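Let us work through a complete example step by step.
Step 1: write down the sequence.
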Amino acid sequence: MRTLRTIPELRALLSEARADGSDIGLVPTMGYLHDGHTSLVRRAAAECDQVVTTIFVNPLQFAPGEDLDAYPRDPAGDAEKASAAGTTVLFCPEPDEMYPTGADDVLTVVTVGLLGQAMEGESRPTHFAGVCTVVAKLFNIVGPCRAYFGEKDYQQLASIRRMAADLSFPVEVVGCPTLREPDGLAMSSRNAYLSERERSVAPVLHEALIRGARLILGGETDASAVRAEMARAVRSAPLGELDYVAVADPDTLQPVERCDPGSRLFGAIRFGRARLIDNIAAGEATDAG
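Step 2: predict the structure and record it as tokens.
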């Protein structure tokens, strides 16, 4: 595995790789890698000749007062995990490499309209502009590739798919299933913020989504009833503070009033410093324990 820190180095290496007939897989991350991240790397390694894993804590997607400075970091551990999972190129740029004029002076940003305004967009209005802008830069730097993203951040995945289509990036965006702990908690770097007691009740969000999905599969079509049941389930747990629950169209991500087994359920909850998100397709409840 080679570790690179500048854009020209990465472009030159990938140009040589393509000249040799290699295809490229891209796994963008903010580091502090866990099994969810490495599952994306393994998928990319199984399907591509070269795997570029990027580690960059992107300041554009953090609003003032969010956890940019406190975001967990483990450069040595990340390198070891990335290599073991099949990364051939680790790209770890500094902020001034990605934003030469400074992250506070970026004039060109990418937005995805309504896709980025619901749910997470309501709670974090600038978030998806930051995500889509940095991913657009990575797509431009890396060039033609397959790019792998987890369904845990489903709104991010949908936004990036639409951005790639609208802007004609030569990129195939590949969605990969959410990896979970044995108790159902979605794997996330922010799980590191949870205290022992908070961690013990954190799976309540996934449990609430399952309850909502089972209502739908049982014939409930009133989305407000499903939302109410999910909110009730979350609020029954100690410590957690509900941010939102939603029942949405899986393509437009807009809230629906009439739901069916094709609907997707979303939620966010806060435990102290940790803000956790999760989502499932209604049909996933048939597979849940």
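Step 3: interpret the result. The first strand starts at residue 2 and ends at 4.
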